[in-house]
């Protein structure tokens, strides 16, 4: 009997000792929050407590910890109750825990949840302030580095601009001819400004992304921005690499067009200046012919480039091409008509810049001829713009061309005298008046025609030659003055007949 009692005491002591060793305190922050009872398989109670402690520490380290996300739920695969944060299990309450504390699993889980919330809240606020201060220091450091980089970029830009301007004299002669010094400076400064803007925008983008990623609350914005930028850039880079062969072909075609157009222009300028002479080809045709050839060359260039453009075979691209072509065909009828008329006028050589012409009711000097319109300055210093298509249907007189050919332009006036006045005297006096007029040629001499024998008077027409059509109105005025002076001197009355102005 004595042996049985001793054996029972020994077994009981082993049981008590085993039970005492099968629990471990959960102490994530030094002090014990609660205890974990029993082992699960090879995982002892101490190991289980350590795992739970680490889980609670992760809650403290979460800068956006929300206690509403810490929930108590029954496990789907067992009778245990889990305390979970979002989808992560922090601690699981099993039967060992319930038996040891003599409470239901749900009650223990709700009690532990409140303990965990209280512990995390009390230990996370201090660390959050430290982390916030650390993040603010990072932001300030990033801003300081960015300011230093911007200052360096500005200094580098100034030095690079000065170096580029100093190297202008070393550019090839052909570039100097094509671009004046002013254009060269503008292009260099513009290119450097564009480069500086691109680098500055890139740095600002990097700064904003890093600042947003420093703070956990805005880190998702930075991630989305990076995705929005990187994904399109990656796609653009792949597309660009695949497009390089076509781009190379386009560059070659355009280079051929540009070179050919420059050669044509140089030849046209030489022909227009008279340095190059082509049989039966007038110098004033040179620039118009150049414009036609350049337009034809440009059309062929567009046709050659079109198949190599991105998505040129897509239905959208083809539809846009048809739509643009339809707009041009509907809206450019009058424009094309004026352009064609302008070329026809040029090759007809009806007038040149500076010629005194009469077009309809307008008399003036041609000051500009373009592909669409012609502008003339009238004797009243009015500038009139006339569409080229109107010129094709209008009656045009070129006074300048007439004054320079066939002995000059004939200016004429008609006047009348009664039958009692000797016609020989009238002829003599009219010729005298014409010879006294400036800008009237002495050779050929002025002459008089008798154009009609009316009921009461005879019509006389004085004809005089001039080679200066630009001042023909002034010459007419002076001729009238001289006619008045001569006939008043001879006592002949000019009030009976009337004078009418004509130009042949």
Describe this structure in words.
- This protein is α+β, with helices and mostly antiparallel strands and 504 residues long.
- It has helices at residues 2-21, 45-61, 95-101, 105-166, 173-178, 181-214, 219-273, 286-305, 315-331, 333-348, 388-393, 399-403, 423-435, 472-489; strands spanning 23-26, 34-37, 70-74, 81-85, 88-93, 356-359, 362-369, 373-378, 383-387, 396-398, 409-418, 447-453, 457-466, 500-503.
- Helix 13 (423-435) packs across helix 14.
- The longest helix has 62 residues, at 105-166.
- Strand-pairing-aware structural class: alpha+beta
Describe the largest sheet. 5 strands, antiparallel
What is the radius of gyration?
51 Å
Name of the CATH first level of the domain at 407-503:
Alpha Beta
Q: How much helical structure, as a percent, in the residues?
A: 55-70%
Shape: rod-shaped
Q: Helical segment tally?
A: 14
Distance between the termini: 164 Å
Low-confidence stretches at least 5 residues in length (pLDDT < 50)? 3-21, 497-504
**What is the number of beta strands?**
14
Oligomer: single chain
Average residue-wise pLDDT = 79
Strand content: 15-25%
- CATH level 3 topology of the domain at 407-503: Alpha-Beta Plaits
CATH architecture of the domain at 407-503: 2-Layer Sandwich
What is the string of helix and strand elements? HEEHEEEHHHHHHHHEEEEHEHEHEEHE
Strand order of the largest sheet: 9-8-7-6-10
């Amino acid at each position: 009997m004595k042996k049985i009692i001793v054996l029972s005491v020994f077994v009981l002591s082993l049981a008590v000792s085993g039970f005492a060793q099968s629990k471990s305190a959960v102490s994530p922050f030094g002090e014990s929050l609660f205890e974990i009872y029993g082992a699960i398989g090879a995982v002892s109670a101490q190991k289980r407590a350590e795992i739970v402690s680490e889980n609670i520490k992760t809650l403290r380290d979460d800068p956006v910890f929300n206690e509403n996300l810490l929930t108590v739920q029954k496990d789907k695969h067992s009778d245990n109750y889990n305390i979970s944060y979002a989808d992560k299990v922090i601690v699981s309450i099993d039967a060992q825990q319930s038996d040891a504390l003599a409470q239901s699993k749900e009650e223990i889980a709700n009690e532990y949840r409140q303990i965990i919330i209280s512990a995390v809240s009390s230990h996370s606020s201090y660390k959050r302030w430290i982390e916030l201060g650390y993040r603010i220091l990072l932001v300030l450091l990033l801003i300081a580095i960015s300011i230093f980089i911007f200052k360096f970029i500005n200094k580098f830009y100034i030095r690079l601009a000065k170096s580029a301007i100093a190297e202008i004299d070393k550019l090839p002669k052909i570039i100097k001819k094509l671009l004046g010094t002013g254009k060269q400076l503008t292009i260099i400064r513009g290119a450097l400004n564009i480069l500086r803007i691109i680098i500055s925008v890139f740095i600002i983008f990097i700064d904003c992304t890093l600042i947003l990623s420093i703070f956990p609350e805005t880190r998702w914005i930075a991630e989305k921005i990076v995705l929005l930028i990187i994904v399109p850039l990656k796609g653009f880079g792949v597309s660009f690499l695949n497009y390089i062969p076509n781009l190379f072909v386009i560059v070659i075609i355009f280079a051929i067009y540009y070179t050919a157009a420059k050669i044509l222009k140089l030849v046209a300028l030489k022909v227009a200046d008279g340095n190059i002479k082509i049989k039966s080809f007038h110098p004033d045709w040179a620039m118009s012919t150049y414009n036609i050839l350049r337009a034809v060359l440009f059309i062929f260039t567009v046709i050659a480039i079109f198949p190599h453009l991105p998505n040129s075979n897509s239905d959208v691209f083809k539809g846009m091409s048809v739509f643009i072509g339809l707009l041009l065909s509907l809206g450019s009828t009058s424009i094309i008509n004026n352009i064609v008329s302008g070329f026809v006028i040029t090759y007809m050589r009806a007038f040149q810049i500076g010629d005194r012409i009469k077009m309809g009711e307008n008399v003036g000097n041609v000051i500009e001829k373009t592909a669409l319109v012609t502008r003339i300055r009238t004797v009243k210093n009015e500038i009139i713009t006339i569409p080229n298509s109107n010129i094709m249907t209008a009656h045009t007189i070129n006074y300048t061309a007439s004054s320079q050919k066939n002995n000059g332009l004939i200016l004429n006036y008609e006047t009348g005298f009664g039958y009692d006045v000797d016609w020989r005297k009238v002829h003599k006096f009219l010729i005298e008046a014409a010879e006294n007029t400036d800008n009237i040629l002495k050779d050929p001499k002025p002459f008089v025609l008798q154009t009609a024998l009316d009921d009461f008077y005879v019509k006389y027409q004085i004809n005089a030659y001039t080679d200066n059509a630009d001042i023909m109105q002034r010459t007419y005025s002076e001729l009238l003055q001289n006619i008045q002076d001569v006939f008043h001197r001879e006592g002949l009355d000019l009030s009976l007949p009337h004078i009418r102005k004509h130009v042949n």
